[in-house]
């Protein structure tokens, strides 16, 4: 079955380009396109897409607020959202990830990375582009005034080993190869990390790793 995608961007040419690119993939289908955050929220409730692909800077309601309303901590059935932006040092990206976004990409990321991010979000995972997002997370983590939360239980040595490549943007397959363990073992350790840290996804796990100076 195709993954249903909702695109939100205030520039018509970008919306059209993203729609054409995604519709060209055999297992992706754009079911709606919004010009602002308010329309994105409305269409998300109306069309029930599998993944949202949202720009940050939009009129009426920006991508951060739209993400918070559809994927925030208080949302019972959060929509997986990938945030895209023109700027690799956009001050709003950290807020979008805090609001519940599953990943962050530049608009020039290319079809392969874009489709990979959508598939990851649909599968309950998150794509962190190592060349952009990890650096961004590190920069904002150092600027955070509040102390990072403490895990409800101490992390095991193996969980600490898994935590670092997660924060560096490695996939489960890459982590498994790096640590000589199976992908199912990686998923088990990641699930344990999310439980102990109160994180909803691997993006928040990565943010915590940066906030605590582990990367």
TrEMBL record:
Q: Which InterPro entries match?
A: CheY-like_superfamily, NreC/VraR/RcsB-like_REC, Sig_transdc_resp-reg_C-effctor, Sig_transdc_resp-reg_receiver, Tscrpt_reg_LuxR_C, WalR-like
Identify one Pfam family in the record.
GerE
Residue stretches making up the Response regulatory domain:
4-122
Organism's domain of life?
Bacteria
HTH luxR-type domain mapped to chain residues: 148-213
Can the keyword Ion transport be found in this entry's annotation? no
**Keywords recorded for this protein, A-Z:** DNA-binding, Phosphoprotein, Transcription, Transcription regulation
PTM 4-aspartylphosphate: list the residues: 55
Establish whether keyword Phosphoprotein is in the entry: yes
PANTHER family in UniProt:
TRANSCRIPTIONAL REGULATORY PROTEIN NARL-RELATED, TWO-COMPONENT RESPONSE REGULATOR
Mind telling me what this protein is named? Answer: Response regulator transcription factor
Q: What is the originating organism of this protein?
A: Aeromicrobium alkaliterrae
């Amino acid at each position: 079955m195709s993954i249903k995608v909702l695109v939100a961007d205030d520039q018509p040419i970008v919306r059209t380009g993203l729609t054409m690119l995604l519709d060209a993939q055999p297992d992706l289908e754009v079911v709606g396109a919004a010009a602002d955050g308010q329309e994105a929220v409305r269409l998300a409730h109306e069309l029930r897409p599998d993944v949202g692909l949202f720009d940050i800077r939009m009129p009426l309601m920006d991508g951060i607020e739209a993400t918070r309303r559809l994927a925030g901590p208080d949302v019972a059935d959060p929509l997986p959202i990938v945030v895209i932006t023109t700027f690799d040092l956009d001050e709003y990206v950290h807020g979008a990830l805090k609001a519940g976004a599953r990943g962050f990409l530049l608009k020039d990321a290319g079809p392969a990375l874009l489709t990979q991010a959508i598939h990851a979000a649909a599968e309950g995972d998150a794509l962190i582009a190592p060349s952009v997002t990890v650096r961004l997370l590190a920069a904002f983590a150092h600027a955070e005034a509040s102390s990072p939360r403490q895990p409800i239980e101490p992390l095991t040595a193996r969980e600490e080993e898994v935590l670092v490549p997660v924060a560096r943007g490695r996939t489960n397959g890459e982590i498994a190869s790096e640590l000589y363990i199976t992908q199912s073992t990686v998923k088990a350790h990641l699930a344990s990390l999310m439980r102990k840290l109160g994180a909803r996804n691997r993006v928040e796990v990565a943010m915590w790793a940066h906030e605590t100076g582990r990367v």
